[in-house]
Amino acid sequence: MGSPEYAVLPLEHLVLNGYRIPAVYTQPDRSAGRGRALSPSPVKRAAECLNLMVVQPGSLQKMEAVSGLATLRPDIIVVAAFGQILPRSVLDIPRCGCINLHPSLLPKFRGASPVASAILSGADFTGVSIMLMDEGVDTGPILARAQIPISRRDTTGSLTAKLSRISAQLLLSVLPSWVKGTLSPQPQEEAGASYCRPISKSDGEIDWSLPAVDIWRRVRAFHPWPGCYTGWSGRRIRIVEAVPVCDVRDVAAGRVVALPSAGEGAGEPAFGIGTGDAVLGVVRVQMEGRREMSAAEFLKGQRSWLGCGCC
What we know:
Elements: H1 8-16, E1 24-25, E2 30-32, E3 37-39, H2 42-49, E4 54-55, H3 63-70, E5 77-79, H4 88-91, E6 98-102, E7 110-111, H5 114-121, E8 125-132, E9 142-149, H6 156-180, E10 195-196, H7 212-221, E11 228-232, E12 235-245, E13 256-258, E14 271-274, E15 279-287, E16 292-294, H8 295-301
Parallel strand pairs: 1-4, 5-6, 7-10
Antiparallel strand pairs: 2-3, 6-8, 8-9, 11-12, 12-15, 13-14, 14-15, 15-16
Helix pairs in contact: 1-6, 5-7
């Protein structure tokens, strides 16, 4: 059971290693793009390429959905960002239970946005926890964990890709021991628990009164979705990549300034924007209706940008 890209590699690894998958459960197709056409989840596309049966229940709370699942007689259900809460009637179906591949070091960052929340918090490390599911939100006992560092350039997109690979590898090491009964689940320590809320589209709007480091973390945490954006001359400008410039101060929040050490190399900021305490150096941007580009390229075509204020 899974829906986003994070769940694709675990599914593919199960198939490649000879596990029999009687069905893949994923979210119903959603409207996407300017035309609002129905689009399948990444897991559905992967499952169809693997010639697996796909089931897309609107809700697993309904008796007919639970009955259909029970007829498959699964030994175990592997869940990775499925997008629905599993009721007790589903948790009780497989003889080896339901296990969840959660992209955080539980009990930290339970809930819907663990990868973005780890970046927002300024954590140095995150990881994957495989847990035996119960009726709580990511509260079940832990079967295994794996930890990785968060780099200064990691975004939610890049970090999720890393965690997906680790989830797939860790799953393959856990499954044989768990099915044989030689692995003992360890209860989570509630004292260290934290929860994260879902990310909304409005979270991407930049408040330039915040500290530069906080905005920098938001730019990374909200990439690729919903993106961090600001306004200028009635148009929306997305800040795709940035870096704090803590040695430049006394710039009004939202004011665009030239940087003394501005460069045109990859990863180098071409201009800065004032924040609540320092300057955020901008590396890559995307103006509404145009392609993404380096900040240096953007500046060549928008010289009036310097000295203006963002809103």
